[in-house]
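Working notes for the structural subgroup meeting. M.R. asked for a predicted model of this chain before we commit to crystallization trials. I am recording the input and output together here so anyone reviewing the notebook later can reproduce the run.

Input as submitted:
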Amino acid sequence: MAGFLRFRKAERKDVHLIVKMLARDKLGQLREDYRDPLPERYYNAFETINQDPNQELMVVENKENEVIGTLQLSFIPYLTYQGGIRAQIEAVRIRADQRGAGIGSRLFEWAIARAQERGAHVLQLTTDKKRPEALHFYEDLGFVASHEGMKLHFNR
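Returned structure, recorded in token form:
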């Protein structure tokens, strides 16, 4: 089980490590451009996220201060639910050599508490159907597949 973990907002110095985690899975390999030096567009995206009070790009560190996980938590204000706030989790990753140690569960415990602290009435996420292990992980945490999600991708 995961021992000491520290959760903090990501800093510019973490972007390279975050993108490395994003790119180190079968789907991320297809969509990320991880290299050294990292393309500037990742740092530009970080600055946009970092300046938005409704975005929290987080990292989790171990006792050696190594970044071993990440997620982005977005807060979406809207008119339904009487002007409610919807929290959305994206880009959850645990460093490959740290998986299976309970870090993902602890990261989600933090995210759930943070969403409640911010007054969200729901916490949602999407998971790619090509990741059945992730689906089971989220179900074990109490998430329910209550809606059918759809996407429209644009060429860039």
